[in-house]
Amino acid sequence: MNLEHINYGLSASQEETKPIEETPNPLPRAVLRLNNHALLDGEWNFALDPDDSGLRDGWYLGHHYEYKAQWPGSIETHMAQAKGQSQPQVWQDRVVAWYEREFTLPEIEEPLLRSMFQLTFGACGYETRVWLNGRQLRTIEGEDVHYGEYTSFSYELREENLHLVNRLTVRIADTMDAETTRGKQESHIYKRGGIWYQTYTGAVRSVWLEMVERNRLRSRVGVDSVVEDQLVRFNITTRIHDPGLYTLRLQVFERGRRNGAPPLYTSDFPLRLEAGQKQQRVVLEMPGAKLWSPEAPNLYQLVAQLIDGEGYAAQIETHFGLRKIESRGKHVYLNNEPTYLDGILYQPGTATYEEMQRHMHAMQKLGCNLVRVHIAGVDPRIYNLADELGLLLWVEVPSPHTSSPRSRQNHQEELLRMLALIESHPSVVIWSLYNEDWGCQDIATNPETRRYITDTYHYMQIEHPQFLVVDNDGWQHISQEGRLKSDLLTAHLYTPDLPRWRDLLDRLVAGELIGVAAFPLVIGDAFFYRRQKPLIVSEWGGFGFADYGGPQAGEERTERIRQFKQELRARPIAGDVYTQATNIEDERNGVVDPHTGELSVPPGILNSRQPTEPTP
């Protein structure tokens, strides 16, 4: 077996003539490699560590595991199974669990010269440590302990530490700490019930082993297109062990090309690279390229190669699209055309990847062109699906539950992790930094909190101009010297009463900032709304949820949705987000079956888009 060839596989190879668009992506990531992988999912040994003695007692050197658990899966489920219970086990303070399994390396015919083994966790957390044959591993980013539970992380495995049969040990710890990025999982501050959910943590996505080159491109590609000059800016991350001269070659093909088809666009970039990791931005001209939009989700295939001095090419592939999103006056512009956002709030909760796929198709059937993925991390393949369907995505950083210097640091690190892994998708158009001041409750009184949010907003404007950014969705947006530190002025409005709804909308568009939502819409310096920002009602409805009222289901709910949408479109509002797509725990206000994806309201009910002329 030749381990130096890029097509060296740990599983069966794909046929070379298979069209790219039909090639399944079995891994929870956006980028494909030509090498294959070995999933380490399945049955693992499992043990709880209630006294947190495992580190002190050296469980990574050897331990008797009493239970078995299926990876991926949540610690809560594994705890319940270990105790013979059918429902996920609730914990209220701290949980520590250990997992272990063995895996066998394939036969190696010659020494690893250009390649190495890499171990990747699709997501795991909140605090993860990993050992190989009793030796603690360090992530490529240099972490002995990986923090976070929504994004992937990887380890390079040194050849001298590998055996024919290897023992992989994982320690996962989590707490109810309100300073960690929790989203809507309960904490010491927000307890389960109502809009707060049971924890779902631990081994939540696949783990896999693959061969990668010593000198390669990482699975992180950022894309920023400017449609006027037909230029595409690519952010590429290199990983180098052998410093020297390299060539970065970018080739762009039609989506669905067959092998042998010539590239539409190509360019070479000579680089001198030192050992370590480096981000590099390069620009590619794409004259005549088709733009991506919900009406025409045109995608291109990027083949990126890092070529060494001997001509060996390490390659990754991904798709991308060219699009421009802009906040201009009272409209949101997509590709320089005003676009009304018919949105829906989506909380995937514990849904499987297959269920999330059904949800995405269902939300498009409702007539939505926007899905607001609410304060949660999802399988990255869902972003791929949105790219292909033409669904705009509004994503959010899972929030901490309290405001402090440490919670802001955790928030910033979570944001950067998410950006690194999903900034290539044309479907992702809006980011929320916070929601309803969760994790920034002192936003109106603490200048440090406002400074952090303002600085982060400015950072996003400069480093990631391909996105619109909302500082604190729903209310209490920050004004500094009369300038809103948000690309959208958003409001969360809940009432089941139609006359009250009309009154709230009238006051909102008239520029009333106090008494419309639960808190003032703007804090900080004085701000005077004169339609200089797009106005989005980013949550409304909630019909069926006990705290919000309104019709439970059936024709009455259908008619109420239609009436409320008509009132929104009768006013100078740029978009709205109906709440919500599926039921989740106590929130029984969904219109999509969480398992089958079937609709409980007529298809197209949320589609209100009509041609809109820009206002001078």
TrEMBL record:
UniProt-recorded Gene Ontology molecular function terms: hydrolase activity, hydrolyzing O-glycosyl compounds
Glycoside hydrolase family 2 catalytic domain: residues covered: 351-447
Alphabetical keyword list: Glycosidase, Hydrolase
Domain Glycoside hydrolase family 2 immunoglobulin-like beta-sandwich: 232-323
Domain of life: Bacteria
GO biological process per UniProt: carbohydrate metabolic process
Record region (Disordered): 1-25, 584-616
InterPro entries attached to this UniProt entry: Beta-gal/glucu_dom_sf (IPR036156), Galactose-bd-like_sf (IPR008979), GH (IPR017853), GH2_Domain-Containing (IPR051913), Glyco_hydro_2_cat (IPR006103), Ig-like_fold (IPR013783), Ig-like_GH2 (IPR006102)
Composition-biased stretches (Polar residues): 607-616
Similarity comment: family membership: Belongs to the glycosyl hydrolase 2 family.
Protein name: Glycosyl hydrolase family 2
Organism: Hymenobacter chitinivorans DSM 11115
Lineage per the UniProt record: Bacteria, Pseudomonadati, Bacteroidota, Cytophagia, Cytophagales
